[in-house]
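Researcher: Please generate the 3D structure of the following complex. Treat every line as part of one assembly.
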Amino acid sequence: MNDESDEPARQRLTRAEAKSRTRALLLEAAAKTFARKGYAGASVEEIAEGAGFSIGALYSNFGGKEELFLELAATYNSSLISRAAEVLHEHEAGDARAADLGRLLADSADRDVDVALLRSEFWLYAMRNPAVMETLAARLREPRSALEGLVGPTLEQLGAPPEASAKAVATVVAALFDGLVRQRQIDPAQVPDELFGLALRWLFTGIGAA
Amino acid sequence: MNDESDEPARQRLTRAEAKSRTRALLLEAAAKTFARKGYAGASVEEIAEGAGFSIGALYSNFGGKEELFLELAATYNSSLISRAAEVLHEHEAGDARAADLGRLLADSADRDVDVALLRSEFWLYAMRNPAVMETLAARLREPRSALEGLVGPTLEQLGAPPEASAKAVATVVAALFDGLVRQRQIDPAQVPDELFGLALRWLFTGIGAA
DNA sequence: GTCTATATCAAGATAGAC
DNA sequence: GTCTATCTTGATATAGAC
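Model: Done. Output below.
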């Protein structure tokens, strides 16, 4: 009784808190390990060790490697969108806005290389497990529609033609970003910071001129 | 002596021919297996069986799984460029050209899903093996400069500004294509055929209007 | 709840027969 | 040159101690 009632201020954790903390640490370690070794290449032992636990602890918290991986895939929403929204609201339409946005995208990509690795792992896994592909598609719908909301006003402002729907343009922007991020890892010199902004400017200029 | 000198017209193969045929079959099976299972997930046994040979035959022709994989990575140049060049020469500049080119790209992507899978596998492998990344970058230089040669004339025709160099635009086009192909596999409805052409049109229109 | 020890299995690679 | 048999390793998952 003493421990639980007299010292709640210390970092004593309830059983539930301890468990959820263990889960969080395991998920974090799993993300790092899957990014570094790939899904098939990663071992549960390495994940457990990375989190500072044993294999047993891992299996007591998750069904196994696959469940850990799918849980991660469900979690990884691109939080990038919200920061992009800030940039868009800070500036009026124009070249400066595209350049700033481009820098933001390039910087985030450089900072979170693991995200790109994991996204590729998720994609490959889903390509090989059709049941998971549907989940992945659903998971990407939210950030995608957020992106649509971001480009929508710009399109109206430009007087974009009907074929340049927010959905279509958002898809193109996301694809462009994805592709540039990957190519930048292969050859950074070929994909300088400015290229992100330039490409966006070309794209929206073209849509406005149609 | 009879066998070798009297029946050359039959499918009798010299030792060297037999070996190179075995190698080709193994490489083909390896491509299929790596695409379906991934690098780490593929087993040499499955590759050998897929080619109709034993594990021993595989090791007699290749150093092992990694060598097989790297040999494949070296081979896979995008032969797409040459077909794209045809389309570009068939049409005058304009919307029809972009639309046709878009259809071509979308169709090839749908036909060769394995290519997209393997390209992702190569990228991930290179991301995790820096020594290989340089090779991958070198390997991509040829098709990339071919693409530059393709977009160059169009850029001149458009009176493109200096920041829209052939290199920069080629990078953007390749990234766009890559991204759209991947997204199309996740949700085909979101990436219709026309989008490839539309995106190209927007891009080049924007470059010309700058 | 977490750890240690282990059963079980699959994979990469090799050696020697043919 | 190719096949069969095998060595060796490393991984998933579980069971029982604490």
